[in-house]
Structures are given as structure tokens and as C-alpha cells.
């Protein structure tokens, strides 16, 4: 009952805040409120300036607290879902929170770790080093004399965020049920992803595991240092790690004063980030200057591992392919990469998409390579996706935001550094690995095993289809909106099948010639050419071409 009352009160508070900031018509259209405030409809309709709407939304989310601030910050990265004018305003959302009292800090630490504070620590500063909406950080010393940073979660923050997330899920259901936009983009799924991400940030043990995973990935790289975790002094609400005492990465005057090599730092930072992204598929999702410090010896160290990005092998490959096609300005290649991510559907107008990508290509055509921003290109690409209602995978949008943030820092450290140069070696390595003999054999074996099961079930499936047809229960649903695209695909498939049959027939013919020549004990010569040797070379080249065309499609 307490939860229900709290939800009801909080829901009314959320609605009132949106009403106060001029969103009454929006709430009514979404079906969240039953009636409009008198006179509000006209004033709402008059404001069609997206920048003004973004400013009002920024103010509204700021008033509603941490859950909604986080939601706005994530929404600002989703240029495939949110118009650029609004997302630029949402980027300005900041966590402006007051520290909570030291007495509450002490209570939380002792309750979580099961001992008095000064038995756990030799000393513990009562003034926080930093504060945020979820927690705050204090300086402390262990009894061993080691200096540590202790992050302590705000009291009752989980309860607040859980209530807000529950309400957001209900609102998402209303939006998805009442709007075509909500259905098309799957708003419930987006809010569920956001909920999982935010609840993950509330678990400091998960953050500690993230830090250790990044540390393991960078083992052997002397240019990177990840702070050590003190598990004996950590829990779900308390995180104790090695204190980082370096220079914040955007304090350029201090870096120059201490003699750091900014060009080397920029190069190492790009290398480390794309090693995380493309080598390991697990990367720091918020590399802003406040989370990156520079230690003596030009060593880079990361902090705050609450927000991480994850890419599977296919997304890593398709991202690398997408970057290379973007750099070449190959619109067809970009569409192929997007298609391989399974984000194009039957409703996507491919000729219109190709036209808009062509316009994007023209925008960067005369630009010198050194002035091209990969982050800006991705934002433009997300803008095209928004126009065509293509929902980019959240993993790629997190990566786009990461690249944009990283580029901002790199441009300060070394204005001549091109982040594209840092991506290319990793992308080329991924391509080499994808098309290596061992990878090809692995794909062939996996597909052979899978297809063998499919072939084994064909007689049974055919029998079921036949029975359904006899009973008049077989229905065909044909969508001709993308007929040309489908026919092109069918042409490719039929040509590939025909090529495979020709290759098989040619191989059988060559096998017959080899056996015949072996029985007759003589060589086969035609027009002074060794037929078997030439035929073997032709068959091998045909086989290689067939494999190359299959793997190039990215559909293995």
C-alpha cells in the first residue's frame, strides 16, 4: 500500500511538473491526462520551435530529479529518436545536487560493511570530494596507510529511482498504445533498456567488476592504469578504490607545466579506447575529461565505470565496416552495413535513404580529411536514421556518444589528431580476421551444421505445408512495397545458386577426367594445354570467388 501511495503521489508530481512547464497538450494527446488545462491548448500549439521545446524539457527533467536527468542525458545521445534541436538542449542537463550529511555517510558505510567506520579506515574525510545524484566520493586512508577514494550511495536513492522507473514503464505503455511513433520505435523496450542501465549504476559491485574487466583488458599496456578495487571495503552501496592523484585530462596548462606530451597522450587515448571497442567489445561509455586523469610518465587512467558499452562480434565488425564506408562516402556500402545490423525493415524507403545518404556524402565531399569529425558524421547519420524512422541499436548510439565525447577531448590535447586514423588499423585487423582461412573454416562448419539440421527437417516441413494446402489453410501475405529490393535479393541468391551448381558440375567433370586419365595412364592435353591442371586452377578460382562473394555480403 505504501508503494502504491508513493507511486500515486509521485505520478501526480510528474504530471504537474510537465503541466507547469507547458506540456499539457502533449500529455492529453498521449492519453496520460484526460482533460486539458483551460486555454493551454492554444499556447502549446503556438510553440512549434523545437529548440524552445528542448529548453522547456530540460527545465522539466531538471526539476524531476536524478531518474529524469539520466533519462534526458541518454535521450540526448539518441539522435535516431530525438530531433537534433531537442537533443542539443538535453545535452546541457547537469547533476546539480547538494551533498548529504556525513552522519548518513557513516551510517551507510557501517551498515554495508558491518564494522565501525574507524575500524575500517584509519581516517575518513567528512567533506566529499565530489557529489552526484546517485552518490558522493570521500577521501580516506586504510590502516595500511594507502589513500583511497570511497564512493557512498545516497540514502533511499534506490527507492526513489525504482518508483520513478515503475512510473516511466507505465507511461511508456500508454505512449506505445496511443501513438504510431511509440509503436514504431518500441518505447517500452527503450525504457526497459534505460531501466536496466540505471539500476546497474546503483550496483557498485557491478561497477567494481567493470573496472577489473577493463584492467584485465589493458594488462601489459604501460600507458594505461586502472585503479585497484578494495573488495574488503566495498559492497552494493559502498565502493572503495585506489585514489587517483593525477591531472584532469583537459587541464592543458597544468599538463604543459609538468612537461606531459599531449600528442602522445592523444594517440594513446585513441588507441586504448578503440582497443576496448574493437578488440574486446567492452568499453568505457562516458570518457569525458572528468573521468580521465593523467599520471606521471604520460600514463592515462580512467575512473567511474558505471556506464559501459558492449558490442558483440557482429556489431564490432559492422561498426568497423560502417566507419570505412563512411570515410569512402560509399552510400551503398553504408546501407549494406546498416542492413547487416538488422535495422532496415520492409517499410524503409531504400531509394530515399540512399538519396539522403548521398546528400550527407556531398556535405563532406570537399572537406579535408583532417577536419572531418567522426562523431559529427555519426550524429548526421543518426539524423538520417531519425528522418527515416530507423532505430539504431542502443549499443551503437552509446558508441556514437562515446566517440563524440572522446573527439572533444582529443581536439584539445592535439588539434591535428584525426580520430579516424585511430579506428582504421583496428577495422582493417577485424576485416583480416573475418576473412582469414581459420575464420572461413569456422563459419563454413557452423553453417554446415546448421544447414544440415534444416535439410533434415525439409521433408517433414514440406509434408506439413502440403497438408495445409490440401485443407485450404495455407495463406500467403505478399508485400510489394519493396518489390525491386526483394527481386534484386532474389537475383543475387539465384545467381549464387546457379554459380554453385556450375562449380559442382565442373568439379565432377574434372574428377571424371582425373580418374579417366589415371586408368588410361596418359595425360589429357587439349590444344597443347594440360586440361586437368588448367581445370583445377579454374575450379579453385571459382571456389574462392564464391566464398569471397558470400563473406563480403556479411550474412554468414
The residue-averaged pLDDT reads: 79
| Helical content class | 55-70%
Q: Number of DSSP helices? A: 23
How many discrete structural domains? 3
How would you portray this structure in words?
By secondary structure, this protein is α+β, with helices and mostly antiparallel strands. The protein has three domains: 2-94 and 160-199, no CATH class; 248-434, no CATH class; 480-556. The protein contains 23 helices and 13 strands. The chain has helices at 2-20, 24-30, 40-46, 50-64, 66-75, 84-90, 102-113, 117-120, 157-178, 180-185, 187-201, 204-217, 252-257, 262-280, 313-328, 331-340, 350-365, 374-387, 394-413, 419-434, 437-470, 483-520, 531-552; strands spanning 123-124, 130-131, 135-141, 147-153, 224-225, 238-242, 247-248, 282-284, 292-295, 299-302, 308-310, 525-526, 529-530. The strands form four sheets. Strands 1, 2, 3, 4 and 6 form a five-stranded antiparallel β-sheet that branches. It has a four-stranded mixed β-sheet with strand order 5-10-9-7, with helices on one face. Strands 8-11 form a two-stranded antiparallel ribbon. β12 (525-526) and β13 (529-530) form a beta hairpin. The longest helix is centred in the last third of the chain and has 38 residues, at 483-520. The chain is globular, with a radius of gyration of 29 Å. 27% of the residues are buried. Residues 39-46 have low confidence and may be disordered.
